[in-house]
Amino acid sequence: MNNLITLDEFIIRRQKDFPFASGELSGLLRDIGLASKIISREVNKAGLADITGIAGNENSSGEAQQKLDVMADNLLISCLKNSGECCGIASEENDTFVPIHSSGNAKYVVIFDPLDGSSNIDVNVSIGTIFAIYRRKSTSAEVQLEDFLQSGTEQVAAGYVLYGSSTMLVYTTGKGVNGFTLDPSIGEFCLSHPDIKLPEKADIYSVNHSAYREFEPGVKKFIDDCIEDAFKFRYIGSMVADVHRTLLKGGIFMYPGTEKATNGKLRLLYECNPLSFIVEQAGGKASDGRSRILEQKAEKLHQRTPVYIGSSQLVEKVEKLIQETKGNN
Length: 329
Ligand code: AHG
Ligand code: MN
Ligand code: MN
Hints:
Layout: H1 7-14, H2 24-45, E1 54-58, E2 64-66, H3 67-83, E3 86-91, E4 98-99, E5 108-116, E6 127-135, H4 145-148, E7 155-163, E8 167-172, E9 177-183, E10 188-193, E11 204-206, H5 217-228, E12 232-233, H6 239-249, E13 252-255, H7 268-281, E14 285-287, E15 307-310, H8 312-324
Parallel strand pairs: 3-5, 11-12, 11-13
Antiparallel strand pairs: 1-2, 3-4, 5-6, 6-7, 7-8, 8-9, 9-10, 13-15, 14-15
2,5-anhydro-1,6-di-O-phosphono-D-glucitol (AHG) binds near residues 63, 238 and 239.
């Protein structure tokens, strides 16, 4: 086979993009790649082994944890602990951040949603892992909350792994977006989608329609226009998979706020920031309906935000409609 480029090789080649990098960031990306291969193997066995269903606990947002949520969380934490390049993690599944003492003066923290779309696990529908890497800010012996509450513009790398009809890892370090597909026969992620650009064509919309009545007027008008314009409607129910489709096919994914849940459901640090970094790097936009997701101030780890993400023209249109109809009901 010609020109087969593995993830490891690609990361090493790209290290020269960071003149002062010591290789720690590359190491971290490789560790996440390794953890995700193990998660992928376990996800593929779901249904055979006793790993589907709820774990019997709730996470910090009060949602039932699935057994695979817990397993993916533990796997990522242990791979990052062993790596020596990460001094602390924050995960959607844990109440607070976890310092990693064994990593000496490692300079990165990693924030992740170990399994996104967990309600889809038991029904064999695509799920994924989402991650964001930040440079540590504090200088004390142990990492501090402020190291995790950075704005999305501070991300040094972000990515996701999609466990779908194939397993794909997509990441950015701020110099474009590249996608790798896991070849199970050799156990390697191989470059399959170099320099991903979100298509200009924008005729797909994705939102949980059942909440339509609770959306603000601008969002309702936007959805009405999508229907009027005969857009295709697609909604998987795993943000990572819905955004992946948007990245490859164009369109918009939305999770608006409602009167009861003004900030919607999705989490700024674990889901929206990393996916927004990727979409922007691919030429798209990500907004909370008013301003750029990446510039939102993080005040707490499990903060939620409305999100409109995808093709620039559609994100700009929904922002405009929200502004124009503000205050109408
Ligand atoms: P998680 O499984 O990490 O809790 O996230 C699920 C999220 C997200 O992936 C998806 O877009 C959204 O929940 C779907 O929510 P609705 O069922 O309200 O549409
Ligand atoms: Mn999630
Ligand atoms: Mn999750």
